[in-house]
Amino acid sequence: MASFAQTPARQAVHAVTDEAHQQTAAATTELAHRKAVHGKALGEQLLKFARVGDELAVRKLLAKDAPVNARDVDGNTPLLLATAGNHIEVARSLILHGADVNIQNAQQDSAYLLAGARGHLEILRMTLSRGADLKSTNRYGGTALIPACERGHVATAKALIDAGVDVNHVNRLGWTCLMEAVVLGNGGEAHQQIVRDVIAAGADVNLADKDGITPLAHARQRNQGAVTALLTAAGAR
Length: 237
Fold this sequence. Notes:
Layout: H1 8-52, H2 55-63, H3 78-84, H4 88-96, H5 111-118, H6 121-129, H7 145-150, H8 154-163, H9 177-183, H10 189-200, H11 215-221, H12 225-233
């Protein structure tokens, strides 16, 4: 007598089962594809509305589970685009929905680094509260503090100093935040305050650039009298 495994009935059962499995797999693949396409479309919309600062549209898209860390062709996330435009409430909504503050685009900017460089203090504070990588660097090898000091963003620079960013970090140009404040600053009140703050935080006032020129020498060359006095009082040579 033939075993049940060899009977036409058993073979028919196997055939039906195999077909069912194939149909299930195909349906699962199709569903995954549709979800991916839908998610991509939502992500593109989220990028669009984050860029222009449309808070209501952003919230609606997030409620539909739009991918919060979607990327455009330049590697920008919705949060990066919101940060670029200083769209504070849009950035807040994105961060509260889990946006990654450290993702870097093709220019090596992250929301955290860009907020520091642009002086967007409120967004910077949000990124700091959500795990900003204080050691991350931009395309010039600089921390968020260096361009903040260069551009005279006093409150932003102080927030970064208080957060623990290294005041003696040297970028690819061979400059620290103090050096940039002197060389690229104008010696005015904002840059004077930044010089005070970085000195108070332990900046090495004698750390020279690649050519061996110190911050004090640069300040004197630029006739920055007040900055020269601050550096001299701090022991600069």
